[in-house]
Amino acid sequence: MPELPEVQTVVTQIGKKITGKTLVGFWTDWDKKVLEPVSKVKKLVKGTTVLGTRRFGKTIVIDLDNAYSIVIHLKMTGHLLYKDEVNRGAKEWQDPTNQYIHHRFNFEDGSHVDFSDMRKFGWVDICETAEILNHRHIEKLGVDALSRDFGPEILGEYCARTPKKSIGMLLLEQEKIAGIGNIYRSEALYRAGILPHRHAGTLTPREIRVLHEKIQEVLREAVRLRGTTDGDFRDTAGKRGSFQKRLYVYGRTGLPCKKCGTIIERKKIGSRSVFFCSHCQH
Ligand SMILES: [Zn+2]
Question: What is the CATH number of domain 4-134?
Answer without folding.
Answer: 3.20.190.10
